[in-house]
G-protein coupled receptor 143 (Onychorhynchus coronatus), 392 residues
Amino acid sequence: MASPRLETYCCPNRDAATQLVMNFQPEVFCGVCIGSASISLMLTILQLLPKKGQSPRKMPKASSSSTILLLISICDILGGLGMIFRSSVWLGFPGFIANISVVNGTDVWPSTFCVGSAMWIQLLYSAGFWWLFCYAVDSYLVVRRSAGLSTIVLYHMMTWGLAVLLCVEGIALLYYPSISSCENGLEHAIPHYVTTYVPLLLVLVVNPILFRRTVSAVASLLKGRQGIYTENERRLGTEIQMRFFKIMLVFVICWSSNIINETLLFYLEMQPDINEVPLKNIRSAALITWIIMGVLNPMQGFLFTLAFYGWTGWKVDLKGRKREIPWESMSSSTAGENAYPSPVNYQSNIHDSKKISTTDSQQTDEAISMLSEGNTSSDERLTRSSPIYQGW
């Protein structure tokens, strides 16, 4: 799983709270991490592969939302691979890992592996948090018609730049002046924990606000498309709202245990002796949430694909045949039919007015299609209710 305690454990003079959780049934904990990450990895890849009898998930070219969803899944896959590799080494080479605890040891490889694997996991999941934040921003900008293909470059710069900056800064402060003398006080640990949990808390606090504003903007778009708010529009708006709700629900389920665990461990660190009898229940709660983290953190990748696309099925189409999206073909045919100018001036004006309205409606349909991507029923209702489909 992804916890700043992984980096803290690399310090030979680690604090007692970190020692407590890292030494609690390490074989069982590593086995849980390997099992959970492996299952999530296989199911995530299965979800992303094209399926027989289904149209590929495709977005309008001006949108970066589909790219962001794919990058979130890639971050989860790579983070899961890091967990599997790290836990496998811990299980397979216990003597190699034991050298981490040697303060004046000459073998630097155990500490290098510890720091490197922990940073890999932390960096990938932190980048996933930033990409999830970018998805909320992009969804809001899409319905405001302020997003486009060029914004993905800005998202890349912000996501990878902030993820690397915060990760390197936190590690540098934790291991200053050297890894053999790190974790001598909270002035080293607290900045590391802050830089780790900033993107997580940002998603928890800001994303619901952006999603709520996006849903309100979607309702306005649907009402303004034809001047009425039919049952189809109401259902489509509800499905988009449910999709955002599922995304946040998965995020809360997978990462709330990390916040609880870190709060409990910080409380234990403040005590003169964490082994006191009155602290037994707090120690037990910290150990339970530690195991829960090992199960839920790696499962985020698969659960996110369910929230993004729903269950896509087992039948994989390895040929990857390209299929045409219905609204794209109808848009092309409509553009072809409207390409002939009217011989009368006032008819030409009417035609231009209709063309502008059709373009606006198409842009609205594209924006809604981006937000409801992966939902076949939503796409079908959107296409049928579109003025393009109706031959407007």
Observations:
- The chain has one domain: 19-50+60-309.
- Residues 19-50+60-309 form a domain with the Rhopdopsin 7-helix transmembrane proteins fold (CATH 1.20.1070.10).
- The two ends are 53 Å apart (CA to CA).
